[in-house]
Amino acid sequence: MAKDVGILAMEIYFPPTCVQQEALEAHDGVSKGKYTIGLGQGCLAFCTEVEDVVSMSLTAVTTLLEKYGIDPKQIGRLEVGSETVIDKSKSIKTFLMPIFEASGNTDIEGVDSTNACYGGTAALFNCVNWVESSSWDGRNGLVVCTDSAVYAEGPARPTGGAAAIAMLIGPDAPVVFESKFRGSHMSHAYDFYKPNLASEYPVVDGKLSQTCYLMALDSCYKHFCHKFEKLEAKQFSISDAAYFVFHSPYNKLVQKSFARLVFNDYLRNASSVDELSKEKLAPFSSLSGDESYSSRDLEKVSQQVAKPLYDEKVQPTTLIPKQVGNMYTASLYAACASLIHNKHTTLGGKRVILFSYGSGLAATMFSLRFRDGQNPFSLSNMAAVMDVEKKLKSRHEFPPEKFVETMKLMEHRYGAKDFVTSKDCSLLSPGTYYLTEVDSMYRRFYAKKTKDSSCDKSLAGH
Ligand SMILES: CC(C)(COP(=O)(O)OP(=O)(O)OC[C@H]1O[C@@H](n2cnc3c(N)ncnc32)[C@H](O)[C@@H]1OP(=O)(O)O)[C@@H](O)C(=O)NCCC(=O)NCCS
């Protein structure tokens, strides 16, 4: 039986093209501060016509394998989580197979998992469960979360983003799953869904999705605490974890979510809530569940009470989601990557609780424990490989007009065939894959920008 199964290595890719939320506020004619303070977002990354979920995953996987010196033959399972549909049958996983076929490895289990932003977590659980199971063949698993989050013009558009994350899964990992501690909540809701197959945009009931998210959070926390308490014979509270990582459609919801956990701890009479906070929360103790989701006063007071703990336990996880935007399946793991980026020198031995939410809806709260690990599979090497600061700094800011223009072109291209892209990879870093063509049979072709900064014409991914 494999021990200490978890994340051995991690790489993140997000497009180098972005738009500042402040500029978007002015362009959209909304009040100043609505996107930056109201939603808590700084910047939004987006794919131009040369990038998509496949090219981003090709980039994330190849750079992970290269930077950690992993032999593609050592991968026995590859799982992809995504909600960005480019083909109703062919999995994104199969687009990644040429990387492995080149070294003669086609013996790789796994396909794609989809349920809004939860698909990445389903893929991750599949991989971890495989390594912990009797069908494990001793090789490592690889999980890819990849999405381009785009919305029609309107209030949801500033909550877009794009990224791909690749995670190597195996034993003796520096990020270990505490697999027994999990609480899930699965239910039927129409809060966000994509019924129109001719469009990349979702149908979204923004307010309902916030309530569904918070209800799922409460339910997962209840189940999580129950399981923890049964196994450990002591009460769980937010004091039992050093950090909390949330799926982040936009930062304001993360602030509200953590405050909700503090309120839950108050209702459970947990030791994490001090006397002064108890006094402040007391007027809300008799609210019904439904009333509590709509109480603006509770929201305000609980966020105020939670603020010092938020700064300590959540703020270090927010960098990439604030600067890149919602990355759907990759969003939670980008928050986890932010934590590793910010705190890798002090994370050893600490527990972190993650909350994964996918509209529709599927949600799980689960627990990870950090170990320093040994190179190349160490927390410090993970931070060095991801090099988040450099990736953020080397981006190109587009004016909002150019962003809107790109969205229009992408609407036109979605589901289309028989076109070649501009093949302009001048903004991409060497080693980045890009889309060159979709032929008359909808087959997609990709190329890789070479190290000498020229655009390589050799086709990959097909
Ligand atoms: C989230 C969403 C509903 C917000 O759109 P909206 O209804 O136009 O926005 P609101 O009017 O509620 O404003 C958003 C916030 O900014 C605040 N705000 C508005 N103008 C502001 C300003 N000038 N300065 C500071 N804050 C401001 C609002 O008070 C509100 O804060 P609150 O949530 O604490 O009440 C919309 O972006 C959306 O649908 N997003 C996609 C759905 C999603 O991601 N759901 C998450 C679950 S997965």
From TrEMBL:
GO terms for molecular function: hydroxymethylglutaryl-CoA synthase activity. The keyword Lipid biosynthesis applies. Residues 2-174 form the Hydroxymethylglutaryl-coenzyme A synthase N-terminal domain. CoA binds at residues 209, 252, 256. Residues 175-449 form the Hydroxymethylglutaryl-coenzyme A synthase C-terminal domain. Its EC number is 2.3.3.10. It is an enzyme of class 2 (transferase). It comes from the Eukaryota. It catalyses: acetoacetyl-CoA + acetyl-CoA + H2O = (3S)-3-hydroxy-3-methylglutaryl-CoA + CoA + H(+). Pathway: Metabolic intermediate biosynthesis; (R)-mevalonate biosynthesis; (R)-mevalonate from acetyl-CoA: step 2/3. Keywords: Lipid biosynthesis, Lipid metabolism, Steroid biosynthesis, Steroid metabolism, Sterol biosynthesis, Sterol metabolism, Transferase. GO terms for biological process: acetyl-CoA metabolic process; farnesyl diphosphate biosynthetic process, mevalonate pathway; sterol biosynthetic process. Pfam families: HMG_CoA_synt_C (PF08540), HMG_CoA_synt_N (PF01154). PROSITE patterns: HMG_COA_SYNTHASE (PS01226). InterPro entries: HMG_CoA_synt_AS, HMG_CoA_synt_C_dom, HMG_CoA_synth_N, HMG_CoA_synthase_euk, Thiolase-like. PANTHER family: 3-HYDROXY-3-METHYLGLUTARYL COENZYME A SYNTHASE, HYDROXYMETHYLGLUTARYL-COA SYNTHASE. Catalyzes the condensation of acetyl-CoA with acetoacetyl-CoA to form HMG-CoA. This is Hydroxymethylglutaryl-CoA synthase. It comes from Rhodamnia argentea. The gene is LOC115746568.
